[in-house]
Amino acid sequence: AQSVSQHNHHVILSEAASLELGCNYSYGGTVNLFWYVQYPGQHLQLLLKYFSGDPLVKGIKGFEAEFIKSKFSFNLRKPSVQWSDTAEYFCAVNAPSGTYKYIFGTGTRLKVLA
Amino acid sequence: NAGVTQTPKFQVLKTGQSMTLQCAQDMNHEYMSWYRQDPGMGLRLIHYSVGAGITDQGEVPNGYNVSRSTTEDFPLRLLSAAPSQTSVYFCASSYSEAYEQYFGPGTRLTVT
Q: Do A46 and B100 touch (CB under 8 A)?
């Protein structure tokens, strides 16, 4: 069965620090990969997605993620975080040839100190 | 476009009561889904639908029922509420099951 692991459950950073959030999935076939963000009190919204092509994808608000197929990873990065990036971040995997069910990771709560 | 709407925003139920959480979308999306979000557990799929008249179970379907009579609406029914169903419920829709999902604002449900 598909599964998604997010290793960091809570991350605290100061403004301007660099961010990397880990995401690993377990599925041997072709996958679509997503990062969603949930700001306090709001619903989830898409940060970025990977379907195919360039494994380095850029999303909104300066976020990017790199798909490394050999490592089954899709880590999220941002070179310099801002206080407004305080949120919960979810990695999600969908396998087009599988069961068509989205699997979400357990989420990483990021707190950025001003 | 209103996107994905959910009602109610908050609800308190007593154990054994039933209720329906409403979800509607105006984007003509075929794929719709219901998730519950619990601390430390992320989002877990309850039920999903790939089109009107077609529904299927997700990871945690027990105690919930769905139907999809129109493309726009995908209500979630709690048959007999239990404290374990205290959670935040999100509805989402998508152009197809392979694409990014658009989420509603959520319903916070407490069962006492």
A: yes
